[in-house]
């Protein structure tokens, strides 16, 4: 069965659309089962996500986190690695950002802190991915299991560090002191208002721009460098990669380092951009959501931006929906997320083989 | 000192029970070649269904049946994706975990409207403790009396069932025809196929057993160990069971010891809170909490022994290439 005869748009648009439609259909049935009107619910959802300035801002703010984790998952995926540890890497990346901000915000100006915080996020996130990567590449332990274990280890480590070392003195709440304002990433509405562009207040900040730059970086790295070619070869056929003289262990480790670094940038958006202090559980499942984003975005930066926007819209719209229809909880978004993973990930062959078969038969006829 | 130890072992048995059910569930699935990181989701789904049904019907046994049905259905979705449609086992597991995490809260809000909980269970809606005969009378017998009366007696029936499942699993996996085929399907599915046995059917049956055991784990959490369902109450137990399965090298008896070890560490962590050890100082609870995960990573890395899983694990079986 040759892939070449299937038109490109079938694989890039038709099948993902069909999968997402199916996920929405099932979600609609669920809403119907709860006794609410799915069309009305969808209306609130879309209005909440895109209907007004602030809503769009929130949508893009959620999308920022999802772009980072989606890219993280996809870079590893391209090398045939399943990085399920985005959650832990994002958590530790946030630690890197927090430590830089806490130690420099009294002495350094913003333009020194910001690049250092970016490096901090990347280095800490990458460091957390390094051990599972090393163990996979050199000692043959399975990356999925080790990254899962490292999520739990990260979570315990952060509780220990924040509660015992970083907590503000004399306070009960487990978070660090608030950073000085020169360690805050500026909000986009603050940047744009001097230029005469007024947008509503939202947590959307400079990290969004950085996320878009990361997309360009990943696109260049994976599709336009020698290393990217090695990565894709490894992902498509590890045996062939080895015979071609590619140092697969090295590519594996670097892929995970880049993946972990990208996941670490969630800390930039959450810690430096929005919360302005180091706190517990700020990753809130974005690492896992990144899997859905990468699957739906077909592991391509453009796809990931679109998928991240869609999920961002679901997060924001879901909050609006829960406000308008109290019987629906925001958790319904998690269900939709899971359904997307199921249909466009686990059940991807269900339609793919048949549709491709249909187009091949038509091409032959 | 001895009494403290007995109390901790008593706690160990309670904490190990869901791990043991889930790890044995994973054993059936993984020995048949199906990676199952959806243990977590199945436990959570069953915990919710069991608590909800127990609350409505007022019977823990009815709850258990609903819990098992839910968990088996989830296992069948996993099978449909991984066996029938040759999907990625890990992606499917993640999907199941995610769906269940959202669905349990959504449905419990809809049905009970208590912020994602189910009503508190009491009486027949919970599995009650069973006191062994003469437990009170024998308490004063030195050493053995405490072990009998405080450690072994006074658990609910699911605890004993979990421990009973270890020899049963051993027998099924190593001494029956189904067990032989199960192991063969995980190591070399082609050989099984050549012998004229359906690989898919064996794998589906393995997943049904896996679902039943996860159902027991979930029902234990919500109707025996606790009195009702709480949001995200599985709290990583499925993943820890997976770690125990690997730590026990996919074999029933070592898996039992891994579960007991992890359960014991949990009991120690609770006891060590704020305790100062002379010469070391206060050991952070988190350091003990992460030990199961750290030990599993070390084992996987081959630093303490070597864990080698079933050969055909995670690979879909394709009968023949067209």
Automatic annotation (TrEMBL), chain A:
<keyword id="KW-0472">Membrane</keyword>
<dbReference type="InterPro" id="IPR001851">
    <property type="entry name" value="ABC_transp_permease"/>
</dbReference>
<feature type="transmembrane region" description="Helical">
    <location>
        <begin position="278"/>
        <end position="297"/>
    </location>
</feature>
<feature type="transmembrane region" description="Helical">
    <location>
        <begin position="304"/>
        <end position="326"/>
    </location>
</feature>
<dbReference type="GO" id="GO:0022857">
    <property type="term" value="F:transmembrane transporter activity"/>
</dbReference>
<feature type="transmembrane region" description="Helical">
    <location>
        <begin position="12"/>
        <end position="35"/>
    </location>
</feature>
<dbReference type="Pfam" id="PF02653">
    <property type="entry name" value="BPD_transp_2"/>
</dbReference>
<feature type="transmembrane region" description="Helical">
    <location>
        <begin position="143"/>
        <end position="163"/>
    </location>
</feature>
<keyword id="KW-1133">Transmembrane helix</keyword>
<feature type="transmembrane region" description="Helical">
    <location>
        <begin position="55"/>
        <end position="77"/>
    </location>
</feature>
<dbReference type="GO" id="GO:0005886">
    <property type="term" value="C:plasma membrane"/>
</dbReference>
<feature type="transmembrane region" description="Helical">
    <location>
        <begin position="332"/>
        <end position="351"/>
    </location>
</feature>
<keyword id="KW-1003">Cell membrane</keyword>
<feature type="transmembrane region" description="Helical">
    <location>
        <begin position="112"/>
        <end position="131"/>
    </location>
</feature>
<feature type="transmembrane region" description="Helical">
    <location>
        <begin position="89"/>
        <end position="106"/>
    </location>
</feature>
<keyword id="KW-0812">Transmembrane</keyword>
<feature type="transmembrane region" description="Helical">
    <location>
        <begin position="251"/>
        <end position="272"/>
    </location>
</feature>
<protein>
    <submittedName>
        <fullName>ABC transporter permease</fullName>
    </submittedName>
</protein>
<feature type="transmembrane region" description="Helical">
    <location>
        <begin position="204"/>
        <end position="223"/>
    </location>
</feature>
From TrEMBL, chain B:
<feature type="transmembrane region" description="Helical">
    <location>
        <begin position="204"/>
        <end position="223"/>
    </location>
</feature>
<feature type="transmembrane region" description="Helical">
    <location>
        <begin position="157"/>
        <end position="174"/>
    </location>
</feature>
<keyword id="KW-1133">Transmembrane helix</keyword>
<dbReference type="Pfam" id="PF02653">
    <property type="entry name" value="BPD_transp_2"/>
</dbReference>
<keyword id="KW-1003">Cell membrane</keyword>
<feature type="transmembrane region" description="Helical">
    <location>
        <begin position="47"/>
        <end position="69"/>
    </location>
</feature>
<dbReference type="InterPro" id="IPR001851">
    <property type="entry name" value="ABC_transp_permease"/>
</dbReference>
<dbReference type="GO" id="GO:0005886">
    <property type="term" value="C:plasma membrane"/>
</dbReference>
<dbReference type="GO" id="GO:0022857">
    <property type="term" value="F:transmembrane transporter activity"/>
</dbReference>
<feature type="transmembrane region" description="Helical">
    <location>
        <begin position="90"/>
        <end position="112"/>
    </location>
</feature>
<protein>
    <submittedName>
        <fullName>ABC transporter permease</fullName>
    </submittedName>
</protein>
<keyword id="KW-0812">Transmembrane</keyword>
<keyword id="KW-0472">Membrane</keyword>
